[in-house]
Amino acid sequence: METGVLCEVNTCKNWKNGNKCTADFIYVVNFDGKQTSEAEETGCKTFEPSTS
């Protein structure tokens, strides 16, 4: 993927140097299941721990 999708979580297996995300898709959810209005109310479900 890498097209304009950045990630600071270097413990994710989809993380690449330069904070690039190499996931095939990004799955973002809200924490409480309600309408969100702030970024802090969301989370990335695409995260998978790195093996290195």
TrEMBL record:
<protein>
    <recommendedName>
        <fullName>DUF1540 domain-containing protein</fullName>
    </recommendedName>
</protein>
<dbReference type="InterPro" id="IPR011437">
    <property type="entry name" value="DUF1540"/>
</dbReference>
<dbReference type="Pfam" id="PF07561">
    <property type="entry name" value="DUF1540"/>
</dbReference>
<feature type="domain" description="DUF1540">
    <location>
        <begin position="5"/>
        <end position="47"/>
    </location>
</feature>
